[in-house]
Amino acid sequence: MKPFYQVLSIKLLCLVFALSLPEFGFAQSVANARVVDANTDEPLPYATIADLSGSRGTLSNTDGVFALEIKNPTDTISISFLGYQTAILSAEELLALNEIRLTPEVTQLTDVIVTADDDYLYQIINQCRASVKDAPIEWSRAFLQHVTRSNDHPIEMIQAYYNVSSSQKAIDDLILKNGRVAMAPINGRYFVNLGMTQAITRLDLYSKSRSFNSHPLQLNLRQLRRRYELDRRPSLGNANLYHIAFQPKRKHAAYFSGEIWIDKSTYNLRKIILRDDSLERHPFVSVFPDQEIEYINLELAFTFSMDENSQRLNHLQWNYELNLKPTGRRPTGGLQRLYARISNKVSASGILHCYQYRDLFWEPFFEYSPEHNDYRKISFLPYNPNFWNANHGLVYSEQQLSDMAYFQENGFLMNHADFPSDDEPFFQFNNPHWQADKRVRYKYEEQEGRPNPANNVPMTRFDPWSTIDSEDDIAVQIMLDINRLEDSISFVSSTVLDIFETESEPPYDSLDHCLLNMYFDLCEIERRQMIARIASLDDINFENLKREHEISTQQIRILQRDFFSEVRGARPKRMIKKWNKIIVDNLEIDNLETFKIKLE
Known about the structure:
Strand content: 25-35%
Helix content: 10-25%
Strand order of the largest sheet: 12-13-14-15-17-18-20-9-10-11-21
Largest sheet: 11 strands, antiparallel
Number of helices: 11
Oligomer: single chain
Shape: globular
Number of strands: 25
Distance between the termini: 34 Å
């Protein structure tokens, strides 16, 4: 049985309240097409498709295929790719097409400036650096997709949505909205990129970073001349752009090579590609002391677009390849942790697409620990079908469709529609969501050959993050995730046992397990009371929902204090019976009977 998630879709004019998971559909049409080069028929990956009548948009996938929901047939849609003529057509015209053919712009080098040396190229990059320095920070939605492969097989796929703070300088912050994961083992173990977003935020295009190699936009004019060779390139047919290649003068230095495209009139950055086939500085590290990264090559590409008179990040692409080798040294530092114990090559590619600037997701009501990585945060989230039906990300490529079939047969999927989280072996001990037919228990360390008194009870195991003397520091939170979906508000809620903040002192007996589950059940009762209050609201809006969640959060704090002070107090048997009756009356669960607790 799946964990008890509650998903509601509330019409703004009439309230729909149900305990089941309702289906949700859209009346709008969806345009599906493929973007190709008009001369070669080759697909154009990550072409930008934008609805100029609003803030919506998407990218084509690696096959050039995209899907865009059409709200109004009279909307104006643009399809653009650097170095090609932009196609502008109505939404109605787009719906009738299955292929968009973009024509390359005529390559021009007639405006080349003739000088005794290439000093003007250094001046151009220096002026671009000045424009990057003062770039404003803006918030947007973003979709992240990351795929890791080894031995021609997929071993990891992360898909996630964020609210993102970015500028031409850097991606400053990513706040998770929702995510899902697909994984398959390699050599009997899982490979996990634990700190993907943390690593991304460490790369600043203006200031040097200890986590990555340096590049031209991080250097002043004198440093740039000393350390880089520059070369003018054809500007992909666009006469309005400078296209400059850069190469460090000293080989094997901690400097990226690459290419940069700069607007001639404003010196704004349009695109930069950073490459290194033997990276000196990087944020990757193996978590195993007997392995280290032998080498890593990396390519990063930032693409910017002009929107509302502002230069904004459109997308960031990355590709890397690495090899892990056995070693006796213990690794130190690093944000991008690799959960693997393999000695062959691993390759990965990904993209972060920013869209709908200033129109952000409503972030989930849940307090994450600062130590939580992306995987840990995703493991807290219940599956929300309404959210995933309304947010499509990028269309699956043919390769990804094949990859998903491989994951389904050989691995597991978390937060995907057909795979409940209680069937996921890699995360089954993490952050249990309340379930009526499953009981949780502390991890029991066998002592003096004594059997675990709770072994014969169907349970979900979990490991406390640490131990202290207190017996009542059990952290439970109510997850509430709210989404605006056209003319309705949809939300999902669940009662979650936060193992990172739960602290306890072993050894444990049956009563300890019983009290743990009683408290978890009481928090679930409070969650249901919150849902009942929401159902009775006259005005369903974000602020009202936030207030109701805050009330329940405060009630859980009071509940924890009252429950543990009474069951550990002067008359514990009487108090335990009292609380157990409340649970039986509300949830029809008798923990005293389940754990065979006799209170005579």
